[in-house]
Amino acid sequence: MIKKLLIIPILTLPFSSTVFAEDPGESTLTLDTMAVTAEVLDAKLGGIDIKTLPVASTIVNQEEMKRLKFVDPDELLDRIPGETQVRNLRIPNGSKSYTIPMVDGAALTSPLSGSTQAFGDSVNAQDIERIEIFKGPVSALHANNAFGGVINVVSKGSVSMPEQNTRFWVEAGNHDRYRGGVSSQGELKGVGYLFDLNTWNIGAYRDQTNITDNLGNTTIQETGEERHQASAKFIFHPDEVSSLILRGSYLKEHLTVPGDLEEPDFIIDDSGIGKDGTFSDEETFTGSAIYKRDFTDADHLDANFTIRLLESSGISRFSGSHDDDTTDINGKISYKHDFDFWNSNFIMGTDIYHGINDDFNPGKMGRSGMEESSKDYGTTGIYAGFAQVQFSPIENLQITAGVRHESIDLEQSNTTQSGVVTANRASFSATLPKAGISYDFLDRHRVWFAYGEGFLAPSISQLYTGRGNNPNLNPEEAEHFEVGLRGSLPLFNRDLTYDTSYYHQDINQYIINRDLLGVDMNANAGKVTIQGVETVLEYQPFDFIRLGVTHTYARNIYKRYIDSNGDDLSGEEMNRSPEHHINGRVAVMPLEGLAIELEVDSSTSYTTLDNASKDPQGRFSRDERINLRLTYDKGPYELWFHALNIGDVKEDRVGYSTRSGVRSIRTVDGLQLYGGIAYNF
To answer: Is domain 10-680 in CATH 2.30.30.240, yes or no?
Structure first.
């Protein structure tokens, strides 16, 4: 059923100061950014400037990327309002795909298998121009399962020809951290190009872990990550009104994760060997093409195509040994027409995805003895059509309305070693509304309201292959409301920019794993309400000082939930959901090119499992993490030194096992010290 929908624009720039100004050529509020964030003005969604489009968004610009030089995506995401401890924006659930990673506007993998951090595993960091984060299922241009939102990586050269530059860099630090690379970009005879090679080896504070294979054999392995990446891009302009971008990349990675420590072991030795260690070896090949054409000043075509091949083997935490081949094919085409009346435009287009998973599962020890080896073959097909209109019937008022249809087909077959074959198929579809309205007042402020609906189809694992599989599951359904206020206030002749919003989302048919007659089974037995307030404040009182604060208040409640023990948890808080998360930054620029930033990241306590009463120690509270970054960028040289987690906090995420009766602790590396140098010519 299609309802009226109201979406509103919210643009937050938590990494740079901005000022608001009235554009005499438009009736809407616009942003006049400082030179350090000029790239943000290029940010568009469906060919429309993000600053005018009613979608909640955060932009991470190129200057911020240079300052952070992150390896772990969470280092960047800590600054984003709405980040959670587990996999998804706003919704802390690691088994659901509520967040979609994208590259240049198209999903890189299946929209049904994404996560908040996935962009860091798939995209060469040296090839990132900026990162765009959109919240909630409120845009017809994004998949309906974006209950949390999408993270879109805009690669270098996708907007304009790259400037001539060659860069060599090296970096070293504790825990055997070594990184380095070379990149070159420019233009040759009208063709833009970008090349990058980089490699790294990073150890860990907990440098050994137990790895248990399918037969129950345990070995000790060194932990850490070894990665080698290469990418190339070519930019063509066949004529004055079109462009073609061809991109290819290769990634080879070995990753060994130490797993969790039980709390008694953590207290004795926080560098010790824990349980559930995992490792993986992966090779990824990605190719993409983007074509843009302006037929007239009012008619625009955007099309892109991506193919990704992944070969992966290793031992995972839940499914044991595996040897998998995955193919992801994404295509998207959209057409936009601008109208003269009401400052309006219309967008229509289609998304098509086809994915293949060819997995070998070695035999493993089960409760009834040795199980047979088997081979799983699964395909996922998604067809989506979308349309969106934006118009301004009166001055300062903007309305956006859209609709998105998705049809999803899942097929799976399993062949055992003895030749027994089982086959399954499921199909789901939905047509959902997306819309919004915003109003600009007093030249500097925007009030907005948004509404959107979403749905998430159950995965092949939930239906057929995973623990508690149930072929009769229905899709989860979401209804999302959001209201906000953004703008700037004069304070001592400088602008204090603010952006705050309240969101409320109900997820019905929520899939949970529960105990039915002594057997675990997935069921549409839950209802969850997520709600919260997200705020960003930015202020630069002097040219040499910049202040920023990001605050998230979240309240995630099970409205209806029966856990696997049969306990009624209705009204209980979702685990790992701290009510408050605050990230504050103070940056001082005493000299041209030099920036010294101090960052403090803090969150309140949270429950370690859904039934909080079963953890005898109650809620867990993590100490603050403090980061110090020094960067110098002037002329051909870049220098940097980072001291992360100065307080040497080891706990990353804490849970509680009712089976073992103790807490389990997922750790981070504590204090990290590293520095680097780059030369540009």
So the answer is: no
Q: What letter does residue 658 receive in the DSSP assignment?
A: T
The 3-class secondary structure across 265-300, one letter per residue, is HHHHCCCCCCECCEEEEEEEEEEEEEEEEECCCCEE
Separation CA 403–CA 381 (nearest Å): 20
Which strands sit side by side in the sheet containing 651-657, from one edge to the other? 261-262, 662-667, 651-657
What is the separation of C-alpha 679 from the centre of its chain, rounded to a whole number of angstroms?
Answer: 31
Question: For position 515, what pLDDT does the model report?
Answer: 64
d(CA 241, CA 540): 40
Structure tokens at 135: 């919240």
Neighbours of 504 (CB within 10 A): 14
Q: Which of 269, 249, 248 is nearest to 258 (CA)?
A: 269
Comparing CA positions, the residue from 374, 364, 377 lying closest to residue 416 is 374
Report pLDDT for 49. Answer: 59
Single-letter amino acid, residue 547: L
Question: What's the CA gap between 160 and 39, in Å, rounded?
Answer: 11
Q: How far is CA 299 from CA 241, 303, 492, in A?
A: 11, 14, 45
**Residues 204/258, Cβ–Cβ less than 8 Å:** yes
CA atoms lying within 13 Å on the CB side of residue 589: 15
CA distance 2 to 403: 8
Q: Report whether 321 contacts 315 (CB < 8 A).
A: yes
pLDDT at 61: 82
Q: Return d(Cα 74, Cα 629) in angstroms, integer.
A: 16
Number of Cβ within 10 Å of residue 405's Cβ equals 16
pLDDT, residue 223, reads 92
| Residues 642 and 661 sit within 8 Å (Cβ to Cβ) | no
Residue type, 97: S
SS3 161: coil
Buried b or exposed e, range 581-602, using 16+ CB within 10 angstroms: bbbbbebebeeeeebbbebbbb
Give CA–CA dist 348/521, Å, rounded.
40
pLDDT in tens, 607-642: 998 888 888 888 999 999 999 999 999 889 999 999
Give yes or no for a contact between 582 and 602, defined as CB atoms under 8 angstroms apart. yes
Gap between the Cα atoms of 489 and 25, Å rounded: 23
Weakly modelled stretches of the chain, pLDDT under 70: 1-53, 121-122, 124-126, 157-160, 318, 365-370, 515-518, 564
Residues with Cβ within 8 Å of 635's Cβ and at least 6 positions away in sequence, in order, are 593
